[in-house]
Known about the structure:
By secondary structure, the protein is mainly alpha-helical. It has a domain at 2-91: Helix Hairpins, CATH 1.10.287.70. The chain contains four helices and no strands. Helix 1 runs antiparallel to helix 2 and helix 1 packs antiparallel against helix 3.
Amino acid sequence: xxxxxxxxxxxxxxxxxxxxxxxxxxxxxxxxxxxxxxxxxxxxxxxxxxxxxxxxxxxxxxxxxxxxxxxxxxxxxxxxxxxxxxxxxxxxxxxxxxxxxxxxxxxxxxxxxxxxxxxxxxxxxxxxxxxxxxxxxxxxxxxxxxxxxxxxx
Length: 153
C-alpha cells in the first residue's frame, strides 16, 4: 500500500511537469524545427503527438536541438503514462486491499488482547507460586510411605 501512496503522490507533480514540458516543447519545436513545425500551434500538436507515444507527425526533426527536445518529450510522455497507469491501478488495488487490511488490524488487536490476558494470568500464577516463603526447618518432614506400611495399623 505504500507503493500506491507514492505513485498517487507523484501524479499531480508529474502532470504539472508534463504540462510545462508540453508548452515549452511546443515552443522549442517551433523555434528549432521551423521547416517541420511552422507555428506554436503546430508545435503544440507535434509535442502532444510525441508525449502520447503517437510519434512524429510529418518528418522527424532535422536539427540536433529538435532531436533532443523530441527525446525529452517522449521520455516525459512515457513517465506520465506510467504514472497515470500506476495511479489508476492503485485505486483498484486499494479497494481490494482495504477489507483485508481491516481484517488484519482486527486480528492484530485481538491477538494483542489475548497476549495481555495471558501475561496477566502468568503474573497471577507466578505470584501464587512465590507466596509466603517457608524455610526448610519449618517445613514438615516428608512422608515415608514404606515406614507406615511396615508399622501396620
